[in-house]
Amino acid sequence: MKKTLLKGATLIDGNAGEPLENAVMLIEGERIKQIAREGEIQIEDEMEVVDLTGKTLMPGMINSHVHILMEPVGDPFSLMTTESATKTTLRGVANLEKHLKSGVTYFRDLGGYGHIDVELKKAVDEGFIKGPEFLAAGKVIAMTGGHGWQMGRECDGLEEVRKATREQLKAGVNVIKIMATGGVMTAGVEPGSPQLTLEEMAVAVEEANKAGRRTATHAQGTTGIKNAILAGVNSVEHGIFLDDETIDLMVKRDVYLVPTLAAPHCIIEAGVEKGVPLQAVEKSKKIMGTHFESFRKAREAGVKIAMGTDAGTPFNLHDNTVLELKLMMDGGMTGMEAIQSSTKTAAELLGIEENYGSLEAGKVADFIVLEENPLKNIEALDKIEQVYKKGKRVTTTREA
């Protein structure tokens, strides 16, 4: 089995501890064999030795909210539902490469089209195509005409929701995505309005849990968020309107928040001038301040926060994960908190923490090599020198 020894770097392990200077990391096959200080591991003849003096090592990033099939143009829904399935698939393959080159080695896809996302996941797992490993949600569970109906399974009432959820499980999804409220991109609905009822969502959660799957909810308005939490979901995506009661519920029930601050930010930055629908721009402007305030309150209260970008929404690029980290730091996170949200905490949310999310002996060797220390400047994550996946170097620069 191939052994690779990386030496001389500053190592950030993802567990929020002090970085290890002059670290040595021994990889055997796909996994980390040992981490120590330089000189504490004996170099053997058959080892490949990589000198990373002056560089920084950290776990590959885990993006908890991606739409791998969506192109971040002004109106991604319209594009995805009008182009051919072949082109959508090819777009997904190209987006996988973008994520990997940008240092994302694992992600969670929260809404595809025609179960193409499920097939892409199989292709990655089989080694047929190159990309990060990921969890796929298939079609989102939405009420008729509700947010995301273009890419979802529309259903109304308990038994329809039950059947819709079972259909996704049959298709091979890894996570169930439930639409609790309206959203920014769907015309004719408001972000704050509740959609699927508590009882309907509880049925979807029940079916997911029976199959050993976790659940995520698109939830922006307070009532819809509370309903989803009481229904038993594992994570709240966006969480724009969080009051004290809702935050307390999240802490008590161990519900994660995936804020996706980049999504409305990118819509506002692009504007109608770049083709974003006017209604989406206006909604984003109305909620941006509240979104940041909810994020700050949740963080201060101790809600577990996992990084997710909502990549694929308007001008929210698949290779710009660092933007979300910068925005979370604008909202009060330290650099270490931001890194942990995109490594260990994200792995725990996805249920993959046994093998991913931190650099420790026994875990899969997914990591990135940086020219600078991101704890000193988070934008160092925009200057990735190397990406390793399962112990193998897959890229040397983002331009490779």
TrEMBL record:
Superkingdom in the source lineage: Bacteria
Ranges for domain Amidohydrolase-related: 56-394
Record-linked InterPro entries: Amidohydro-rel, Metal-dep_hydrolase_composite, Metal_Hydrolase, Metallo-dep_Hydrolase, OTAase-like
GO molecular function: hydrolase activity, acting on carbon-nitrogen (but not peptide) bonds
SUPFAM superfamilies assigned: Composite domain of metallo-dependent hydrolases, Metallo-dependent hydrolases
A Pfam family: Amidohydro_1
PANTHER family membership: ALPHA-D-RIBOSE 1-METHYLPHOSPHONATE 5-TRIPHOSPHATE DIPHOSPHATASE (PTHR43135:SF3)
The protein's name in its UniProt record: Imidazolonepropionase
Native species: Tindallia californiensis
